[in-house]
Each structure stands twice: as structure tokens, then as C-alpha cells.
Amino acid sequence: MKNKKTEISGKKAVRGRVLKRFFRHRLAAVGLVFITIAVFCAVFAPLFAPFDPNKVVGDFGAPPTKSFLLGTDQVGRDVLSRLLYGMRISLFVGVAATAVSTVIGVILGLLSGYFGGFLDMIIMRFTDMVMSFPYILLVLVAAAIFKPGLNTIILILGFVDWPGVARLVRGNVLSIREKPYIQADIVAGMPKRYILFSEILPNTIAPILVYATSVIAISMLDEAALSFLGMGIQPPRASLGNMLNGAQSLSILTSKPWLWLPPGIVIILLVISINFVGDALRDAFDPSGK
To answer: Where in the numbering of this chain does the ABC transmembrane type-1 domain appear (predicted)?
Structure first.
């Protein structure tokens, strides 16, 4: 009973220390607040959006007014409504693509690091092969081959981003598997599934979580780039990337900034905020930190 209470109090102390280190980063705290607000607005976009994002409700390319706070786009749709729905799509792509790449990378990294030998060589050589291709070129080729759309973008980004996670997990597993408690489990004949997912994986969660924040930011930027080029989320569905598509025109860049500034600013703030949070998490989970 005492051991259980000691373990619980120890976990609370560690959690409190991690939170204290995290909130030392003022920019990360501000970034977390912004991300929370953005996610809330995106999830409840139907409640906050004044108009249907795909419906023509005003004049073509009209500037901001009291009725249309961010103006209307080239075909008369409300920019604010499309911004809220576009933010929802971009955040979903970032999180979903990161989830796909993390699951693939964690499984391959665990298998490679724990079993080693021939399996490790095969997985790592395949990882090196994927990483040897120019990243953006690989994404563009895959997007050109498959039909553009939400699910396609998520799968493409997920299957391209996993090598970094796999190498990170493998490195941690190589260190953890030599620990006395892992060796004790092996000697005791514990199932490999238990050792991998109940002993080793929980001790690699912190670096995976930190790395995942950077993957979310990269996936959002990639979605924006693909949609900007017309190879991502297809109109009339709004995303932050295809809202920027109209900015390819010099006349819009110079005379209608309300069409491209709002989505551009939101992308920049989201990516910066996610990176600040990732930096703070890295420092918070650092065992050598104070």
C-alpha cells in the first residue's frame, strides 16, 4: 500500500515538474492559448461562421464591411466563414497525417531496435531509401499520381513523414533494452508484446510527443503548399492552402489583401505556436533540466 502511494506521489511530482518547466516558456504558453482558441473555433466552425462557406452571399471580391468582416472572395463567398472551415481542414490534416506517420514509425522503430539483426538492417535500409528522396519532390509526385482530396493528402503525408519517427524510436529502444528491468523481464520469460508496448514504449513517449509537434507543423505547411498548387484540397471545400491559391495573381496581391492575408497569417501563427510548444515540451521532458 505504501509503495503504491509512493508511486502515485512520485508521478504527481514528475507531472508538476514537467508543467512548471513548460510554463517557464512564455511564448509556448501564449502559443498554447492560441492553438486552443484556433482548435475551438475550428471544431465549432458551424456555430461561429456567419455564412455557409461555399455559398455566394455577396459581391465578387468585396472589401471588408460590417456584414462581411473579412470581405468576400472572387466568387462572392464570405472569407471569414471559409477561414474558419479552412482552419478546421488544415488542423485535421496536420493531426491525422502525424497520427499515421507516428503509428508507422513507432511500430517499425520498436521492431528494429528491439529485435536487431537482419530485421533491423531491412527496416533501416528501407528508411534510408525513403529519406534519400527529396521530400517535397516525393510529396508532389505522389500527389500527382493519386486523386487529390482530403484522405489522399493525409495518407501521402503520413507515409512520407514516418522515417524520422522510426529512427528516433529505434535509438531510444537500443538504449532502453539494455536497462536492468528489461533484462529482468526477458529472463523471466515475459511476452515480447508486453516488453515492447508496456515497458519500452511508455519510456519513449516523451521524445515521440516532442517530435510529433514538428510533424504537425510540417504537415500543415505541406497541405497548404499542395492546396496552393491545386494538388491538395479541392474547391469548393476550403482549406488555408487553397484560400491562398488566388494570391498567385499580382492584382489580388496588390489590391485585395483581404483574400490572402488572413489565411497566410493564420498559417504562420499556427506553425509558430506549434513549434514554440514543441520547444517547451522538449525542455520540460529533458531529465537533465531543472
So the answer is: 87-278
